[in-house]
């Protein structure tokens, strides 16, 4: 049993506070310093001796000692030395109990003679049993009797009988309390911790013995309360510091509200709602529970600043847990619960299985309160798919997977940017940026979205989007890329088309969006495009078609065509086909005039098994040469009339291997001049029916340089059946134009087309822009004639 020296202020002999003084506590009649204690929670730990006073001369802590008499010296600090200024005795000696000091119950104690000093009491009131215990008479005590620790005397008007006990736990029977006899519960739970003149320390923990108690309401105690096994409260709720429950727990004990830091087991509680709202520092979910009511209700139950441990308990109702600033152990929550998280570092390790579903709406089972400072980081997730679901429902637009693998991204998710990870399947119908992403099933599913990809590796199964910019990615295609909707701009892309095409069917003849490929490798498919297409520094192992397209200029429908190929390497069966293929022959009457916005084919290498550049509409007299409108610089029927004039730009140069040569001329013909038909036939390697060109290049594959667009018009003599003019202006500085006819025979009966057409002829001089067109070869009963050699002024 302990007595205590309560905190108080000490004074010097002059009545001033004993600043920085000290108390030395000796065993009575000895110079030996006594053992002292201070209270830590409900337990005693070693205390100071001497006891140093503060700058106000006050003793700060209650000092406890075993019950005895002590000599206490009061010392003053003077010039660095302590000197005694007074002393006093404190405490008492408890004598051994004698048989003639034992009384029956509290009534016997109230009748006992205070002169006895110490009395042993057995029982409480004849009905409630209480073990033997000792009371001491304190004639100076005036504290109110409470029926347990402090008992008033019927013999003396002054003084109290005070309980002396070495127990840590005070049985409720000391207050006459048992199940069914509970009227003194309030006094029992609120007894004073230290009483009397000598500060006698009362057992710190009130303890309820076994039984089913029926008291109602909520009772508050500033103590830790202990419960024997089998103690059960069917209606009472305890508000206390903490609870100590004897094991094993075979039934619920009560509902609790802990006022301070405490530990709580769910098996103690009568209702599940009280467990979650009890305020403990740690909420541990027991394997076996005894809830009388498992319904959490229909509102939010707050759980804050605590640790949640154990396995998820069974709950009912639609109520939610509002979890704030909690430390949640792995697998401590259930996906069947409705949870709201705020000010949390979110993780999936809280949950017992993989069916996580978190959102911004309380209709979700797990809801991240976006008004709070929650932290959502994939590093805290064992299952990256859960992180994605949470991030999507939480409304995040940027997703950094940190090299994790996930399952599916669907169109309901709000992501605008995803980086650094593997996605098994992805569907997008909103603008998206993908960076360092691997995806074996990639789908862009909205013709109005913008796509940006970088350093990706994917199989593309749907490619409907508005724009697609890529850099340094690798794609395999399981679909066509419809560039009627999609503008492509790729840089360093490796694309295996897998027999699919970039473009639309070749008979559409409609405008498509720009196609730009730079530094790419394109394999195993078709590029088919009808808007200016730009390919530079690519490796192409695929066929390329450049189509004309219809264009409404405000008053009528016209046709246009353009392309640009620079520094590419074409391999295998690759080829550039300009104008479309012969399957479009039924469209010739529709597109017989086509404005060429520009054609550039320069510095390409054709390591191909087929001829690298083809213009099917231009080969042979039976095809419409008027298809290339920019090459028909004047009205065919009236050379003197101000006919239609369409500027064009052409460039064909420095291409190598299996492709047309940059220029050609009849073998043996000098620099310009008039050549007769008979003379033409005498040229080595030439006949009426076959024009032979330099380096044995076939006539239909000759690329030539035309006059510039702003050349002046001058009258040119009509050709005759017996004359042919040819211009080779490699040694002149101005371009020439010539008038050409195709005759059915040698008496100048012209076929339907081209009739008296003007066509630009070779201009080798490099100061002029390059261009290309097919020369007309002679065939059986046909003679190609070039005539009307006149200079064109103001060529530049």
Description:
The relative contact order is 0.04. Helices cover 4% and strands 38% of the residues. The protein has a 23-stranded mixed beta sheet that branches. The chain has a 5-stranded mixed beta sheet with strand order 9-10-11-13-12. The protein has a 5-stranded parallel beta sheet with strand order 27-29-31-34-33. Residues 582-587, 617-648 and 662-796 have low confidence and may be disordered. The longest helix is centred in the middle third of the chain and has 11 residues, at 384-394. Among the domains are: 2-91, Beta Complex (Tailspike Protein, Chain), CATH 2.170.14; 99-208, no CATH class; 295-302 and 311-395, no CATH class; 635-796, no CATH class. By secondary structure, the protein is mainly beta.
């Amino acid at each position: 049993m302990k007595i205590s020296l309560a905190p108080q202020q000490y004074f010097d002999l002059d009545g001033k506070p004993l600043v920085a003084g000290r108390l030395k506590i000796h065993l009575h009649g000895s110079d030996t310093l006594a053992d002292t204690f201070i209270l830590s929670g409900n337990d005693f730990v070693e205390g100071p001796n001497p006891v140093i006073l503060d700058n106000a001369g006050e003793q700060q802590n209650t000092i406890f000692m075993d019950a005895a008499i002590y000599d206490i010296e009061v010392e003053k600090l003077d010039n660095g030395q302590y000197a005694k200024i007074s002393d006093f005795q404190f405490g008492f000696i408890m004598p051994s109990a004698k048989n003639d000091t034992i009384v029956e119950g509290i009534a016997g104690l109230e009748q006992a003679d205070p002169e006895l000093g110490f009395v042993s009491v057995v029982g409480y009131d004849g009905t409630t049993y209480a073990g033997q215990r000792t009371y001491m008479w304190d004639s100076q005590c005036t504290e109110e009797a409470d029926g347990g620790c402090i008992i008033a005397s019927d013999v003396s008007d002054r003084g109290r009988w005070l309980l002396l006990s070495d127990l840590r736990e005070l049985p409720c029977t000391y207050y006459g309390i048992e199940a069914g006899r509970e009227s003194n519960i309030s006094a029992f739970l609120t007894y004073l911790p230290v009483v009397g003149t000598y500060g006698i320390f009362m057992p710190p923990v009130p303890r309820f013995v076994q039984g089913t108690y029926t008291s109602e309401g909520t009772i508050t105690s500033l103590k830790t309360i202990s419960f024997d096994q089998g103690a059960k409260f069917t209606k009472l709720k305890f508000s206390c510091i903490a609870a100590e429950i004897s094991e094993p727990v075979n039934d619920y004990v009560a509902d609790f509200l802990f006022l301070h830091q405490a530990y709580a087991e769910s098996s103690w509680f009568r209702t599940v709602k009280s467990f979650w709202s009890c305020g403990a520092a740690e909420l541990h979910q027991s394997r076996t529970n005894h809830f009388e009511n498992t319904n959490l209700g229909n509102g939010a139950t707050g759980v804050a600043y605590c640790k949640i441990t154990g396995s998820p308990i069974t709950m009912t109702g639609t109520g939610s847990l509002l979890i704030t600033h909690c430390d949640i152990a792995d697998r401590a929550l259930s996906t069947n619960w409705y949870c709201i998280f705020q000010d949390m570092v979110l993780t999936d390790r809280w949950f017992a299985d993989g069916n996580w579903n978190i959102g911004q709406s309380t209709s979700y089972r797990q809801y991240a309160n976006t008004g709070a400072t929650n932290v959502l980081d994939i590093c805290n997730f064992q299952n990256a798919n859960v992180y994605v679901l949470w991030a999507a429902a939480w409304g995040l637009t940027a997703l950094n997977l940190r090299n994790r693998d996930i399952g599916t991204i669907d169109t309901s998710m709000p992501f605008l940017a995803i980086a650094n990870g593997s996605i098994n399947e992805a569907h997008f119908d909103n603008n998206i940026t993908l960076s360092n992403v691997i995806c074996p099933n990639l789908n862009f599913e909205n013709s109005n979205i913008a796509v940006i990809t970088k350093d990706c590796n994917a199989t593309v199964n749907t490619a409907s989007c508005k724009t697609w910019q890529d850099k340094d990615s690798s794609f395999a295609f399981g679909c066509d890329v419809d560039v009627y909707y999609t503008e492509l701009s790729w840089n360093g892309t490796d694309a295996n088309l897998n027999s699919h095409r970039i473009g639309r069917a070749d008979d559409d003849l409609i405008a498509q969006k720009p196609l730009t490929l730079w530094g790419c490798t394109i394999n195993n498919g078709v590029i088919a495009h009808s808007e200016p297409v730009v390919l530079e520094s690519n490796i192409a192992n695929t066929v390329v078609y450049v189509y004309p397209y219809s264009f409404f200029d405000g008053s009528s429908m016209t046709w246009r065509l353009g392309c640009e190929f620079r520094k590419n390497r074409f391999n295998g069966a690759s080829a550039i086909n300009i104008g479309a293929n012969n399957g479009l022959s039924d469209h010739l009457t529709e597109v017989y005039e086509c404005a060429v916005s520009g054609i550039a084919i320069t510095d390409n290498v054709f390591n191909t098994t087929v001829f690298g550049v083809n213009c099917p509409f231009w080969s042979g007299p039976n095809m419409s040469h008027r298809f290339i409108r920019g090459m028909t610089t004047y009205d065919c029927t009236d050379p003197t009339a101000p006919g239609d004039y369409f500027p064009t730009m052409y460039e064909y140069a420095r291409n190598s291997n299996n492709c047309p040569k940059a220029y050609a001329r009849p073998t043996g013909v000098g620099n310009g001049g008039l050549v007769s038909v008979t003379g033409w036939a005498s040229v080595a390697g030439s006949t009426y029916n076959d024009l032979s060109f330099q380096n044995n290049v076939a006539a239909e594959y000759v690329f030539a340089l035309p006059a510039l667009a702003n050349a002046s018009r001058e009258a040119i003599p009509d050709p005759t059946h017996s004359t042919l003019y040819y211009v080779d202006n490699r040694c002149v500085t101005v371009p020439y134009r010539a008038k050409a006819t195709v005759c059915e025979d040698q008496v100048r009966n012209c076929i339907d087309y081209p009739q008296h057409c003007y066509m630009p002829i070779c201009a080798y001089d490099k100061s002029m822009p390059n261009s290309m067109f097919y020369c007309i070869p002679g065939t059986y009963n046909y003679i190609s004639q070039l005539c009307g050699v006149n200079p064109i002024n103001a060529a530049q």
